[in-house]
Amino acid sequence: MIRVWFNHWFSTSYGIIELMKEDAVEQIYVIGSNRQKDSVIQLVCDAWYEEPNIDGEAYINFCLEFCKEHHIDAFVPRRNMVEISKNIARFEQIGVKVMVDDYAVIRLLNDKAAAYHFFRNCEGMQIPPFFIANNVSQFEQAYRKLRAEYEQVCVKFVKDEGGMSFRKIAENVDRFRQLKIYQGSGISYEMLTEALGSATEFDDLMVMPYLDGNEISVDCLQTKKGLIAIPRNKGAARHERVEYRPEILQMTERIMKKIALKYPCNIQFKIKDDVPYLLEINTRMSGGLQMGCLAAHVNIPNIALGKLFGRDIDWTMDRTEKTVSYIERPRIVSP
Fold first, then answer.
1. pTM for this one?
2. Structurally, how many domains does the chain consist of?
3. 3-state secondary structure of 323
């Protein structure tokens, strides 16, 4: 039996855990934890615990003690992943294998500006132009430069997850009409400058042109047999099209050769005028991973777990292009 711990993952990791448990040789016992005690993930876990609301070294110490107490064999982190990668040796000393790449790589790729600089001179790689702002004056200068060339500008903080800080900047906003529609990630230039101006300075804010095409999300895992890469074309609806565009696969292969990530990752591209631009690289399994795995008939989470323990699980891929979607089903989490 392999005892695997998932710490504070998002709700769609339900499908990731299901896939990891599909092991032909080992029994996979999954322990889940979350700061949200009623998270639906607990229904697919064999044991469930609430996490403390702490960070930094205190959280690392909590993780180490949790691993000892629950006899963890493999740790699949999401929360505080960068700090955990920095402390991999401490987990290895107590016999825990951690499904996370080396700290230097994780730190680089979780800094979007540093990642863009790293790949800027990579052959065949399209990187969108960007500026970094730390105060409202720098933002206004960057905005004017980009608006002189591009129709719309967007912003997000460099240290971000899941696009929480992403905003599309709109001009000439009809404030009354906004009351009648879902505003989504849009924000007026006036509101944004007012918000940024309320702080003397702030963390690195990336200012770049808005890429108005679809997002291509590529789920990846490097194996001895070769690279698994499943590109999902994500539109505005729930369905996604798994399609193997040569230029997307070529850029993905270049990225994976340049950084040599050992464990599952997700590379995102954004299309503008039919040109794919690198958007970001997530050094973890994506929320939609199970959709790609279903379409390609390949089990990335289970293959990755085998790799963590030095076991090469054979795989094949169905590269037939197809559309996949999902439905929501109610589940009773607690009485």
1. 0.92
2. 3
3. strand
